[in-house]
Design the sequence.
């Protein structure tokens, strides 16, 4: 893995922020050669099937934090609907003893993720993305999930459980479903992370998030207060503007920036 790691350049780190402050995080800028890209740096590797013909999503979860089967099924469906992978997309679940059960920083997530990765994100003809589900919470405990580089996200199950709505509406399972798709949406570059959309659908108060509450990229999805915004049905789908952006990126009609691979 060491050789490919040298190719990853530093720009900035996106992390998921509290409901009233959606933002780009710059708390952990790294030196050249030590970073692993930014969320969206592997967008074209996912959307294009000419080089990377298959995709594997590695999910490492702390004992007791295995994601719901509905979540992994939904993730596979959403990725299959937008990523060109003629040889398919697989979800690989592994119970892993993740370090600590306290507060996690973006760098903690990044370090744990790369320690557990079985392959470099770009390996042969396969694209590898990863999700970890640790015990504990993010260092801002209102955060449910975080995207820390081009291939790594984390979901904080304890915070997801606490985000359940009144009378379990929405349920923790529904919250998890939505938050997971939201984080992988950031790995796909949504919204305006590595491109500029021709549509005006980015929330000006919450950068890199949708202003449409029917999109899974809506800014409130990321926060523990999600139960205050949605009764029972939480969006789990990219809206038409999101899909149009991904189609434009795939075709080249929308220019993709900061890419670690181009067709």
Sequence:
């Amino acid at each position: 893995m060491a050789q490919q790691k040298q190719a990853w350049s530093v720009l900035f780190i996106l992390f998921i922020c509290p409901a009233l402050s959606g933002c780009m995080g710059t708390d952990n800028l790294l030196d050249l050669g030590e970073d692993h890209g930014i969320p969206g740096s592997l967008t074209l590797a996912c959307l294009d099937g000419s080089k990377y013909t298959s995709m594997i999503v590695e999910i490492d979860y702390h004992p007791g934090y295995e994601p719901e089967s509905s979540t992994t099924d939904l993730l596979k469906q959403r990725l299959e609907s937008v990523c060109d992978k003629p040889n398919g997309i697989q979800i690989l679940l592994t119970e892993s003893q993740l370090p600590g059960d306290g507060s996690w920083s973006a760098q903690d997530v990044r370090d744990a993720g790369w320690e557990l990765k079985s392959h470099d994100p770009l390996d042969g003809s396969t694209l590898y993305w990863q999700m970890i589900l640790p015990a504990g919470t993010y260092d801002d405990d209102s955060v449910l999930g975080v995207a820390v580089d081009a291939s790594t996200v984390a979901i904080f199950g304890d915070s997801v459980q606490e985000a359940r709505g009144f009378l379990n509406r929405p349920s923790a399972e529904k919250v998890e479903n939505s938050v997971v798709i939201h984080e992988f949406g950031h790995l796909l570059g949504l919204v305006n992370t590595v491109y500029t959309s021709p549509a005006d659908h980015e929330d000006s108060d919450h950068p890199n998030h949708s202003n449409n509450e029917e999109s899974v990229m809506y800014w409130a999805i990321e926060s523990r207060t999600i139960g205050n915004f949605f009764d029972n049905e939480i969006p789990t789908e990219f809206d038409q503007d999101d899909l149009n952006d991904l189609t434009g990126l795939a075709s080249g009609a929308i220019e993709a920036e900061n890419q670690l691979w181009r067709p």
